Known about the structure:
The complex is a heterodimer of chains A (about 190) and B (about 950). Chain A has about 190 residues and is mainly beta. Chain A has two helices and ten strands; from the N terminus they run E-H-E-E-E-E-H-E-E-E-E-E. Chain A has an eight-stranded antiparallel barrel. In chain A, strand 8 (about 130-145) and strand 9 (about 145-155) form a beta hairpin. Chain A is elongated and about 50 Å long. Among the domains of chain B are: about 5-330, Methylamine Dehydrogenase, Chain H (7 Propeller), CATH 2.130.10; about 635-735, Immunoglobulin-like; about 770-955, Heat Shock Protein 90 (2-Layer Sandwich). In chain B, strands 1, 28, 29, 30, 57, 58 and 59 form a seven-stranded antiparallel sheet that branches. In chain B, strands 62-68-67-64-65 form a five-stranded mixed sheet, with no helix packed on it. The interface of A and B includes residues 106, 107 and 134 of A.
Amino acid sequence: xxxxxxxxxxxxxxxxxxxxxxxxxxxxxxxxxxxxxxxxxxxxxxxxxxxxxxxxxxxxxxxxxxxxxxxxxxxxxxxxxxxxxxxxxxxxxxxxxxxxxxxxxxxxxxxxxxxxxxxxxxxxxxxxxxxxxxxxxxxxxxxxxxxxxxxxxxxxxxxxxxxxxxxxxxxxxxxxxxxxxxxxxxxxx
Amino acid sequence: xxxxxxxxxxxxxxxxxxxxxxxxxxxxxxxxxxxxxxxxxxxxxxxxxxxxxxxxxxxxxxxxxxxxxxxxxxxxxxxxxxxxxxxxxxxxxxxxxxxxxxxxxxxxxxxxxxxxxxxxxxxxxxxxxxxxxxxxxxxxxxxxxxxxxxxxxxxxxxxxxxxxxxxxxxxxxxxxxxxxxxxxxxxxxxxxxxxxxxxxxxxxxxxxxxxxxxxxxxxxxxxxxxxxxxxxxxxxxxxxxxxxxxxxxxxxxxxxxxxxxxxxxxxxxxxxxxxxxxxxxxxxxxxxxxxxxxxxxxxxxxxxxxxxxxxxxxxxxxxxxxxxxxxxxxxxxxxxxxxxxxxxxxxxxxxxxxxxxxxxxxxxxxxxxxxxxxxxxxxxxxxxxxxxxxxxxxxxxxxxxxxxxxxxxxxxxxxxxxxxxxxxxxxxxxxxxxxxxxxxxxxxxxxxxxxxxxxxxxxxxxxxxxxxxxxxxxxxxxxxxxxxxxxxxxxxxxxxxxxxxxxxxxxxxxxxxxxxxxxxxxxxxxxxxxxxxxxxxxxxxxxxxxxxxxxxxxxxxxxxxxxxxxxxxxxxxxxxxxxxxxxxxxxxxxxxxxxxxxxxxxxxxxxxxxxxxxxxxxxxxxxxxxxxxxxxxxxxxxxxxxxxxxxxxxxxxxxxxxxxxxxxxxxxxxxxxxxxxxxxxxxxxxxxxxxxxxxxxxxxxxxxxxxxxxxxxxxxxxxxxxxxxxxxxxxxxxxxxxxxxxxxxxxxxxxxxxxxxxxxxxxxxxxxxxxxxxxxxxxxxxxxxxxxxxxxxxxxxxxxxxxxxxxxxxxxxxxxxxxxxxxxxxxxxxxxxxxxxxxxxxxxxxxxxxxxxxxxxxxxxxxxxxxxxxxxxxxxxxxxxxxxxxxxxxxxxxxxxxxxxxxxxxxxxxxxxxxxxxxxxxxxxxxxxxxxxxxxxxxxxxxxxxxxxxxxxxxxx
Lengths: 189, 957
């Protein structure tokens, strides 16, 4: 099903290499087992799935970040057939294996300082091979070298050219709710 | 910048004055905040379509209705909300941006609601809002760049996307929908190119005088004006995207606010040098002092133009200011002004009792033209050679050229019959001089100061004028010359014919003071005490107190550039729209206290402005155009029911007891809030309008019904075409008054009544039937007991006893007698106790026993606790048993009486019917059944069971 979102990111390290400012020797928050959940609440059916394979990196120096999740890692759904449709028909996971979100935090805050922050991440969200600029509001808690990120947002199927056959319109929401939660550990590169 | 040619020979004054010009001043009115907010600083001002002035301050949002600034609560806050941006979108929603980055929208009930997109609100100060042609909202921040709310998603434009900076000082949207953002690194022009962001820089290389752009004014009429940090002010042509104008050599520092009056002038607020305005056509910059209690604002935070021709200013003084841009002043006149004339080069000449004065363009000083002479100047005129004609009281007329000071005097005598010139006018080579001795017509043959000769002709009483005293002479657009006479009405010279109007329809005309021609060629004239008259060439009509004129003693009238008639009287200035008759009053609110004008001390200049001389000041009226608001904006502010505000736009049906209504309304007229009065009526209750001064209407105990509350406001006590605000609502009748309820209740009542009657009928019938049955049963019982058969049997038994056992015979007779006595005693009763009935049965059984001996037996096994039976029922059943069954030695008859199921009495006998049935009336058993049916719902059960005949009688309580 649907639209899903996002990110799973694979190979965060790979992205890090491309992000400006991610220089060797700097400290970076990393995770490779974050959780991402989505929910399609359509009139006729509620579909939920989640992946534990969200990978992410945040550079507190540059306030840049990258997250990725493999589409095929989503589990849940109401039936195995549904999961198959999700990967084969809608997300075309073979062609577009990952969803990613890469960008920069708008707020000028120091994520090395312990505390709880509401931040807005401005970046490029790529799902189903289509990239959209998005601002995603997140709650970040920094303590003991860990950075816990939680956020929720919506993804419009239409924004990412995910087309749904008319027959299943009543079963799949146009607007997919996504929740992300990850604990990133501070590491030196 | 090129020196405008219009300055011409007057350039000398400008040079003399240097760069710091000081011209006619608007009159600034000071407004204050409530005491507890006295020191708030105004960051932004906005006039919304509601006509309210909204003030965004260092301590929240305020709504100003002309009289009071009311704080509007900003929810969910502990610290003061610093409002840094205000905007009204096309849907008339007010947006409020805070320094914290939070954004609020004002809902229809006047409550601020947070705007909370999924993306979150900015965390940097909101500096400006804008809306493009697609209705997309743009939000500029100081620190996070620009945001755009597009299809319910928030997008960000920052330095990384190509913005000149993330610190945006101001933003404006031009007529093509392009968004201009001012940053520390020039302007960024932003728009959407489909779904792609398009950002183009505009900076020094494009001709911008300074890179730091502080203020942007994107006005549909005025173009895009940019105020800079050091570079002053420039204008960008949005079509060519080029700087097409800038103020050279700006040295007034940071520009902090801008406002624009049409294409006419730009008002400029600076951060350290106060307020300026810039005349776009003349390209002259002049400072405007903003004083309050001795302190002058040198830091201007906000400027806002309003819909009535006013301008609003806030700076680093307490409160804020407003001025009506239509009226400006040159104060401190050196004498009583008796004549005014505007020259072609923006200079103004003023005649006073003590001489002639000149006010050079863009200056606010009266310069004495002949400092060494005393001239009592009472009229002024300029001839086609640009010579000034100075009419004096008693000293004839002077012809004067200011450029070289050349002067020619025409004194009384000779060509001039009288030396007191009250008025002059002319056309072409002809000049008319109204004197206290008739009218002179001068014809110029060449420039009179260059040897040209003057020929003259006089018109006086003898030539057809009603009088020699003429207050005013005017040449109209058709070449006719009009004379305002003292006491003899109005005369007109058309060709060689003088016509005198001494009556306007039926009103006799005496003195006529002043005259003007409107744009439609109609002649208007004023009188000392009869108000204003209009003459369209055929008929007269009058505009008087009834039509709204405040003062009948009108000293002068003139036609403004936009075709209105301006009249001056001692109450101030009235503007009359000659087509609609609508009047607007101006007085001390715009700076005109106690006008007390002299006669005809007003004149139009080349631009159509009217200059008005008052005893102590010169007033310039600028016609800003017909698009200005002419009525107060009437608004229903609140509807309260039972003293609680209701969402009146959403709710218009009230319950019967919600009948105490309060309507709060306001007529917002910023020009002069004090003059606004109201009339309202509640249609459905009030028969006529109610005229009041206050802003509240209260209705109590409004009966159920449909109503419309209407209110309108006026600033001139006339209700001609004032818009009316209305609110329709309904008060429902109480439940018990509603038709469906009444119908239902009526139905139920009728049904109940009918039911009761029926019930009563039934009961009566039943009682009657019971009586009948009882009588019948008594009759039957008696009949059966005196049945000859019974008697015969009884007597036979008795005969046997008498011989064999006389004692028993006596007892038998006693029992028989008892039996009959009891029957007689009980026959009238409806019911008797079981005990009594059993006694009777026992007596009866004794008699039977004597007759049948052992062949008959009766067993009674009954508790008799206070239960009742129908009288004689048991006796009759026992008698029936004997009557219908064989009683013999071989077939003895057993009758038993028992109580069963607690409330039934069972009477049973073994069934051995006689072969020949006894004759029977058939009444016995059925009579019992019928009587029971009248007394109880429980039936009498008759049946055969196990060879027994059984009757169950219900026991009665």
